[in-house]
Amino acid sequence: MVLLASAAQAQQQNRGASAAPSPAGEAPVVLDQINVQGGGVPGGALLSGPTTTRTTREELDREQIQSLTDLSNRVEAGITFNRQNNTLNIRGLDGARVLTTIDGIRQPFLVDTRVNRGGSNAFDFDSLSTLDLLRGGSGASTLGSGALGGALAVRTLDPEDLIKSGRSYGALAKTGYDSTDRAWFGSAAAAARLNNTWFLLQGGFRDGHEIDSKGNVKTIGPTRTAPNPADFNQYNILAKVHHYVDEVHRFGLTGELFKRSDRVQTRTNAVSLSGNFRPGSYETGEDIERNRVSLSYDYKLPGSFLDEAHATLYWQRLKRNDLVSAWRYTSIVGPYGRDNQNEENAYGFNGYVLKNFQTGVLSHRVTLGTELRMSSLEQYSAGIDNCPPKPASGRYTGAFTTCNNLHTNQADQPKVDGKLIGLYAHDEIGLLDNRLRITPGVRFDWYEEKPQATAAYTLGGSQPVGLPPSSSDSAWSPRLRLEYDILKNAPGVKDLTVFAQWSKTFRAPTANELYGRFGGPGTYLRTGDPTLRPEIGNGIDVGLRFGDRQLGGSVTYFHSNYRNFIEQVQIAPPGGLYPQGGIVSFQNINRAEIQGIELNGRYAFAPNWLVRGSFAYTRGVNKDTDTFLNSIPPMQGIVAVAYGTDRWGAEVSAKLAGKRDDVAATTGTTQGFRAPGYAIFNATAWWRPVPQIADLELQVGVYNIFDRKYWDAVNVPTGVLAQARDYYSEPGRTVKATLKYQF
């Protein structure tokens, strides 16, 4: 876990001391009685544990982290943001196998039958208060489906985070430039309180271009190594109102909007100078939009019937559009456009209560909670092309044969109504003056995905016959954790705790895996399988943690077995009704094993000085074929040395990765991507010119100082590469500058 220099730590502590309002004549209420954010227990009540680490708002700013890629390069070794499918990779698993929550609200993994990309990064880092990263499956016992590899839980800013003690208002503004994607960005947040009511309004933007790489060949087609030209714009708006009835009860209202649009001018293998699609006339794009309105309630009164209670009632919409705008020059000459849309509307309730009590020599900390969710998912592909109306035979022939492949203005899956009920209970049992803690816990989940008939699906080119059946199943996610404090308040390392935990996890199939249906007679068919069973994980974590923020760290060994992995497979070869590609579907086939070691540590070895580090080694094997998993990252480490005062500070860091040769064949003799090892070095410096007058800070960072060419192995497509190798390389030397002002 990254730490700040001592001055920044002091700043964080001062902000955390702000007080919540209280009725006139009563003593002020300390914010931490209700607010669980900031420097509190990593993960809070639901994700706390030995494999959870927290990055605070101050740490995000200090390390100039504005993306999950930044997080993996500067703080958390062993994780990767996979830009191929838009998801986070934890312990070698990504996609729907890693769960993301925003303010405790589950984020769906929306993947289109035509485009294998999710949208789990639909949030702005400048709107965050904390970011919790849980490695491994122990979070499934409170979060349920999707947390096979781990979970990313982010919390947005509260008004209490900006208003310092004794004030009734506060504000934060930030702007800067990042040469990685030539992006200008900015954000501003303002908070105020009126008696017992607190208000927050935050907004941000980021406008830029394609992510840089070390490729410099700008030819057209498969030999190109330079990135495709691209433009994007992103913005978010966050509004919150918190009302304190008294010292115990807080009600909240939150509204949030996030939107990002990307447009790419294709210059790679999809176009050629004399082909059907040509440079300048083939643009792709992606739009992601997330809207949320939520009501919250927080209660805290230790010693009463319940010590704490927290509840959230919400509506959320996540919408993804994958776009193509092009012109054909040879086959079916004329315009060609596609807008593949997935939209999920969800209504839900999350809530839990905490109670501490004693039974004889045993102490108990009981957590009881629930998750209730209803959703409606619709997919539709709109499009234009220059094909004539379909003939009565249903098949195009002659010059228009290609039109048989132009499946558009249809739904590739039925509308799907989903239901989820989750119930969980945990009890942290303390013995020997709470030096030994045993925490049994379990979550029960029931889910149902029910297809609904729509004309867009029934009349689609894949010619479905009726509706597929509903998919419904249930799962238990138990967890057992043991912790023992070998040392308490000892000299040197201070505390030393050994821990071991066992947990079971599951991941329900996505709607695309169950019901996606794309293609048609005379071409090919990609179809889902409504009989799929959930993926199941079974794993252990064993290790120790020691020390505090001055000298501390942890070591963890983990081992997990997975079964019923959902994989896309060829179930019928080309021929018959589907001569072009046969039939491809999903099946529960693979058994997999993933194990490894994770370490992190920090040491403030002198006044104002800090050294920190993170290390991860993961090994994964497909047990069916006894081959390696191509989603496993290489051995990685991060080490940094920082110095800071109340006026200025600097840090030098390095990201190290071993080579990745342990890969498996994907098709025929084609191997997974073999990546050489690398070491990249970074340096940052920050300056506060007048800390006595204003909290104004200028920060500059230089990343990959020596302009090293390297590849993030997990961020390279598996199978045959469509472009030359350098096309998939990471950015060379980049610079980021930020200016921040807070009052």
Structure description:
The protein is mainly β and 743 residues long. The chain has a single domain (6-742), classed as TonB-dependent receptor, beta-barrel domain (Maltoporin, Chain A). It contains seven helices and 34 strands. The longest helix is centred in the first third of the chain and has 11 residues, at 6-16. The chain is globular. The two termini are 27 Å apart. It is found in: Cell outer membrane. InterPro entries: Beta-barrel_TonB, Beta-barrel_TonB_sf, Plug_dom, Plug_dom_sf, TonB-dep_rcpt-like, TonB_haem/Hb_rcpt, TonB_Hb/transfer/lactofer_rcpt. One of its GO terms (biological process) is siderophore transmembrane transport. Keywords: Cell outer membrane, Membrane, Receptor, Signal, TonB box, Transmembrane, Transmembrane beta strand, Transport.
Largest sheet: 22 strands, antiparallel, barrel
Cα radius of gyration in angstroms: 26 Å
Count of DSSP H/I helices? 7
SS strand fraction: over 45%
The stretches of 5 or more residues where confidence is low (pLDDT under 50) are 1-38
> Which CATH architecture is right?
Beta Barrel
- Helical amount among residues, as a percent range? under 10%
Q: Structural class from helices and strands?
A: mainly beta
Query: In CATH's first tier, which class applies?
Result: Mainly Beta
CATH evolutionary superfamily: TonB-dependent receptor, beta-barrel domain
What number of domains?
Answer: 1
- Described by the principal axes of the CA atoms, the overall outline is globular
Distance between the termini: 27 Å
CATH topology: Maltoporin, Chain A
Keywords: Cell outer membrane, Membrane, Receptor, Signal, TonB box, Transmembrane, Transmembrane beta strand, Transport
Domain TonB-dependent receptor-like beta-barrel: 259-705
Protein name: Hemoglobin/transferrin/lactoferrin receptor protein
GO biological process, one term: siderophore transmembrane transport
